[in-house]
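Field guide to reading this record: the first block holds the primary sequence, the second block holds the structure written as discrete tokens, and the final block holds curator observations. Each block starts with its own label. This record concerns Ran guanine nucleotide release factor isoform X2, catalogued under organism Microtus ochrogaster.

BLOCK 1 — SEQUENCE
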Amino acid sequence: MEPTRNCPLFGGAFSAILPPGAIDVSDLRPVPDNQEVFCHPVTDQSLIVELLELQAHVRGEAAARYHFEDVGGVQGARAVHVLSVQPLCLENLSLRGSCQDAWFLSGKQQVAKENQQL
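BLOCK 2 — STRUCTURE
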């Protein structure tokens, strides 16, 4: 089995450890500048890292939920389900001097692929 790999994101601003078999979608089709998109050829799952604009009217855990649900709405998601939202320890982040809090949201969205219907 192929090992996980450390992959630079957004020109090296930060990185993520990707699962075995992850394919960079930007090698296949255009991807917006505010996104990094990876897919898995066997499981048909995608990982999308998206830079989002600060929304001052929501904070903390509510902000994580807001953005996840907003992205689902923009993508025309048929279903948006938050599984969990957990705070990240700022000491472990390279952005620790730039943010007051950070959150990890795990969820599922059912979104049709390009030119497909759900």
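BLOCK 3 — OBSERVATIONS
Strands lie at 5-9, 14-18, 23-24, 35-39, 46-50, 79-87, 103-110.
The radius of gyration is 15 Å.
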